[in-house]
Amino acid sequence: MKITEIRVIVSSPGRNFVTVKVITDEGLYGIGDATVNGRELAVVSYLEEHVIPCLIGRDPMQIEDIWQYLYRGCYWRRGPITMAAISGIDIALWDIKAKAANMPLYQLLGGASRSKIMCYAHAQGRSIDEVVEAVMAKKEDGYVAIRAQSGVPGFEGIYGIGSSKGEKNSRARIKNLPKEEVWSTEKYLPHIPKVFEKLRDVVGWDTHLLHDAHHRLTSIEAARLGKDLEPYRLFWLEDPVPAENPENYRLIRKHTTTPIALGEIFNTIWDARQLMEEQLIDYIRTTSVHAGGVTGLRRIFDFASVYGIRTACHGPSDVSPVAMGANLHIDLWVPNFGIQEFSGYREATHEVFPHAWSRDGGYLHPGEAIGHGVDIDEDLAAKYPYKRGYLPVNRLQDGTLWHW
Ligand code: GCO
Ligand code: MG
Prior knowledge:
404 residues; alpha/beta; Enolase-like, domain 1; TIM Barrel; three-stranded antiparallel sheet; 14 helices; 16 strands; 38% helix; binds D-gluconic acid; binds magnesium ion
């Protein structure tokens, strides 16, 4: 079998997606996701100018060699753009291999280790009452695990969500540039335990509750928050501190038993190595589209299993239904599975990406279609052209640029 063509399809059915289609001389094709939210076209150019010419004529069955060729072979290894490009190709190649084997991808990985995949939904509100209402709505929809995010009193919007509502006349809105938000850790820290106190009162104890601090704290602040949240037994506290210095997590660990989840922006096993070796985290959040596809993710998750760390693939709406499909096949197989994030998609996104995966209450399943079971309707995708879009930028009240 030979690769004859690779197409990069950019579409925006609700938000931008970069999709890779690898076509072979035997009529089989595979679909991959290579989306990096807010930097989409950098990956398109990387693929079209630098990756695709090297792959035409190659055997698509040599997934590992192609991965190494694109990783080691380019000299400039790692980084989100390189790794998303590798991910897009890799997911498509696994799709082809599973189709050639006439089996769903999870079978090729080693078969199902469970019958269904627990996922968590997103719930948010500007006030505590709104958060409670949003969490209850998700619970009624069948979810057994819910991430709760709350607005901080005195501040506009809900942090870490990325909506540009209320920004109608701003320069950001008019020029389609990043929205700017304002942040105060001092106001956030005492507020969040009140949110979870109320949530436990109303929602009870049989629903897993999660919270994402979105990299905004220092280690000592995160240690304080983890401690203050202990009475409410969170499933996890996510991304408390940026992880450029993994040793920052030692201090958090010394002070709190609240479980820690990290890694949605990691793109290789080396980003997570020290955190896993020192057991500074409980859940590893890498995802197929950003961490080197099925090949990269499998390697990270196997390494995590050595230390009893469980998996928790990143899965918001900017991780496309294609990467979601790949994640779900890995989730069904991986022995050290923890949970899968699932924030859902707009109707237009479901239509552009027909998929075999499905949700039943609080659980997902990849389906039994051969390959990973997700396709792209290219004619429909063409009706949703790319629109420049950014994640927001965050500043402290005095104007200092902060982590979003
Ligand atoms: C999450 C994330 C997302 C990110 C987004 C960035 O836990 O799902 O933090 O909401 O902000 O994926 O593109
Ligand atoms: Mg997150």
